[in-house]
């Protein structure tokens, strides 16, 4: 088969290091009967060892050349291929208990994480390879410079852990940055927001000027009298509030909730 030229617009950095591939499969521990979906199978670096452990796998791939290569390698009863942009995929149509994984194209990693927030009830767990810096922002705790909108909105929905870092030389072509694997599991008990779009707007506004006090940044959204009721000091900044603080503030300011 012809050599595939990596397409930069699809964020194609293919995994080539066998020890890294082994370590990732070891983390995932795929088992027969599980409902696995791989995003961006590419040339099959993870797909091949996954299928050694599974009877059936679903993959989502945007690049039609790669789709036809995959079609030539496995029959549809072993490998179901969704030839589409993952951002347009409705994850409610695959059944439940989804184990989703992927060495993700870095240019769509944040929109994809926000897309998956719509499907948490269908998800069992997620293993993603991302830019290390993005994983650091995802798992960051309040008070740290990396803590931001991504940390709050994802930690609201998921327990997350950075499992391993992966050096650039494990890929071909080599990316400019270091990568890391994050493991994510939906939270079953959480303080819940009355209205999630409102929580999302509040968090976005708070972090839009992260150096300013909440009193200033949230002026248009939160009446000053609400801060003491929410037991939040309005001279603090966005990065000082916990997830529970944001949920409390969102619930107290959602129109109709007070
Ligand atoms: N899994 C392979 C590996 O580890 O070697 C390839 C990883 S490569 C970083 C990302 C893969 O995602 C490529 O195969 C790329 O074509 C695919 N991809 C990029 N954008 C996509 C999108 N929006 N939807 C689905 N797949 C996408």
What does this structure look like?
This protein has helices at residues 18-28, 47-53, 64-73, 109-116, 132-139, 149-157, 196-208, 214-217, 226-229, 243-253, and strands spanning 14-15, 35-39, 57-61, 79-83, 98-103, 123-131, 158-166, 171-172, 179-186. It is of the alpha/beta class. It has 2 domains: 8-186, Rossmann fold; 196-253, rRNA adenine dimethylase, C-terminal domain (Helicase, Ruva Protein, domain 3). It has a 7-stranded mixed sheet with strand order 4-3-2-5-6-9-7. A two-stranded antiparallel sheet has the order 1-8. β2, α2 (47-53) and β3 (57-61) form a beta-alpha-beta unit. The longest helix has 13 residues, at 196-208. The chain starts with 13 loop residues before the first strand and ends in a 5-residue tail after the last helix. Bound molecules: S-adenosylmethionine.
């Amino acid at each position: 088969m012809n050599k595939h030229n990596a397409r930069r617009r699809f964020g194609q950095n293919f995994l080539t290091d066998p020890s890294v591939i082994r370590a990732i499969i070891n983390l995932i521990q795929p088992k027969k009967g599980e409902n696995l979906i791989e995003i961006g199978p590419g040339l099959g670096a993870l797909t091949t060892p996954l299928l050694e452990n599974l009877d059936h796998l679903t993959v989502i791939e945007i690049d039609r050349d790669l789709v036809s290569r995959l079609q030539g390698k496995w029959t549809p009863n072993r490998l179901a291929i969704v030839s589409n942009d993952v951002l347009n995929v409705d994850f409610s149509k695959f059944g439940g208990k989804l184990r989703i994984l992927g060495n993700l194209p870095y240019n769509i990693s944040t929109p994809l994480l926000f897309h998956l927030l719509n499907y948490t009830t269908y998800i069992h767990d997620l293993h993603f390879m991302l830019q290390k810096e993005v994983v650091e922002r995802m798992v960051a705790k309040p008070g740290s410079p990396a803590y931001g909108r991504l940390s709050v909105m994802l930690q609201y929905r998921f327990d997350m852990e950075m499992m391993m870092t992966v050096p650039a030389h494990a890929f071909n072509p080599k990316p400019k940055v270091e990568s890391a694997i994050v493991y994510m599991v939906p939270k079953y008990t959480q303080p819940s927001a009355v209205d999630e779009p409102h929580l999302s707007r509040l968090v976005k506004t708070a972090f839009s000027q992260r150096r300013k006090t909440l009193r200033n940044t949230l002026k248009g959204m939160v009446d000053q009298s609400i801060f003491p009721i929410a037991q939040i000091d309005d001279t603090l900044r966005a990065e000082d509030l916990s997830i529970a603080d944001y949920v409390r503030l969102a619930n107290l300011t959602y129109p109709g909730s007070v």
